[in-house]
Amino acid sequence: MFDQLYERRLRADIETWIERGWVTREGAARILADRGKADGRSRLPLALATVGMICIALAVTAFIAANWDDISRSVRLAGIVLLVVGANMVAARADALERPGLADLATAFAAMVFVAGLSLVGQMFHLPQDWTGGALLVCAGCLAAAWIGGSRLTLALAGVAAIVWVLLGLESGAPTTMGDQVLALCLVPAVAAHAVIHPARLSRWCSILLAYIVYLQWLLSAGPASMVDSPLFAVALAAMAGSIVLFGTAADHGGIRPGSVGLRLLARSAADASLVLMLCTMLVAFIGAWSRDLPGPELLSPAVVLPSALLLLAALAVLRRLERPQALLALLGVLGAVMTTAVLGLAPDQIVVHAALALGTSVAVAMAGIVMQQGLWTLSGHAAFTAVALWLLSETIGSLLGQALFFLLAGIVLIGMAFAASFSLRMAARWADGKGDAT
Amino acid sequence: MTDAGHPGAPAPASARATRPSVRSATARGSVRWGLIALVQLCLIALPLLERASVHWTGEEVVLAVRPVDPRDLLRGDYVIINLAIARLPASLPGLDRPIEAGEIVHVELAADAAGVFQPVAVHTRAAEAKGPVIAGKASYDRTPQEDLSVDYGLDAFFVPEGEGRAIETTPPERMQLVIALTAGGRSAPLRLLVDGRPILSDAGF
């Protein structure tokens, strides 16, 4: 769907560029022909095949779950070996026929057969339900297949298994061992590097999510005992997300060498995800989900000091790489969000200060989006502003008449935000035009 | 049809030139995906080898059980082996200290008059026990006054589809579980007994 929207927009823009003499007719024809090769419709068979592959893998799993006792264990074990080898040989054949999409799909199917094989072995030999250990084995098998076979879909499976492994370890309540932490830390680059070398949106988002969950695991072990309920948790989360937003923005706008397209895409996705996470953390802190007591000495915990130091380094990187209005607005938005989150814990009863900081931060993020032509920044800033405004209104109004007034004001605010968004988009277009003319 | 298109005819020069590269691509692909298959099969074999080592080196121990019948989405019907020794009374020697969830404990066992093994003490290391010892993981945090809940990893006995319910309705006092127990405390289920007769058996090795 997005490909088709982009295609439509490109056709409209390219006519304008031809009229202005920026692109020749021949050049425009070549650009459109090149886009035509990557027509979104050509992905339909592969998408259907992916769903079909998942259905077949589920069929294999259900067949295994039937627990057929009529067939001896040795035959069943041989069947697992044949299925795993056969599925991988189908992938090898697809690769030899130079059908990379099919090879990717077949490798992912083979990985699912491997998971089903693990389940069957567990069933046949009455292995205990060790979901944590199972997730780690699945992760290892899928990661090996993803790297050796260059399969993006299998990498996504490995990423999901790694996330499940870390989450199950946290959920068990047992203290995280150093070995587990080191292993989790090694899994992040193993997944992310694949997403850089073989760029794919799914694997990029898997690696970003995994990185944050591993960070959560570290926070829980490095911070004080009641970290999750403390505002320290919100500050540590916002500071890390903020530093990734700034590093990602510095890398994206400051220009990583053109050869690292995958790295640039990963930096952009990480910055996008972190921006949303940072603003969500600020908003959740704002509505008071965390306790409002922030003990002084625990501010010096490594769980707070390290992400804060990283945030300062990221701020320096942004100042060095970005132009002045971009850098200042980005810093104002990001540092403002982190500071708001911290002040909510440090000075719990200062509602006017909280509201001013949160609203100011939201506006700064939206403005940074306008000058950097980052639609997500603009949208997130407006959304955060609306959420803060609505929360303030709902908190200050109680009676039926008050509720009527609240809904009236809420409607006016939303319509006002719609106008603000429209104005921002026009400003962005005008700014881009001005910059284009200047060059 | 031209000669070039006939099955018996010699291939055109361009086709002859591409054939070795297709063959080498196929060979390379076979090696790569063969390696993937090998890695995945080794990973499947890992838990199998661990279980086999318990079967081969462990001694048989009889435990009292209380089974229920749930269903595993991926692996079908199974009987939860709810061991009588899964809940240890606070008065047991070795339980006069706080224990954190996930901590490994070693429970020393001794046979009663009926030949069923009962817990007699809890140790931090298997070597501290005088008799057979079974290793388990504390399910929850506990203070010294509380009973201890332990997970021994003996929680599932898979059965053919539909048979789990019948086992669940059997009175628990008639049932026992025979396990293989190594000197280090590792364990694996061997047989589920009703009135001393095996109704489920795991003798795969």
Automatic annotation (TrEMBL), chain A:
Pfam short name (any one): DUF2157
Annotated DUF2157 domain residues: 16-153
Record field: transmembrane: 44-68, 74-91, 103-125, 131-148, 153-170, 182-200, 207-226, 232-253, 265-287, 299-319, 326-345, 351-371, 376-394, 400-425
Stretches of the chain forming a coiled coil according to its record: none
Keyword tags: Membrane, Transmembrane, Transmembrane helix
Domain of life: Bacteria
Protein name: DUF2157 domain-containing protein
TrEMBL record, chain B:
A Pfam family that the UniProt record links to this protein: GDYXXLXY
Low complexity compositional bias, start-end: 11-21
Region feature (Disordered): 1-21
InterPro entries to which the protein is assigned, alphabetical: GDYXXLXY (IPR025833)
Identification of the protein by name: Membrane-anchored protein
Source species taxonomy: Bacteria, Pseudomonadati, Pseudomonadota, Alphaproteobacteria, Hyphomicrobiales
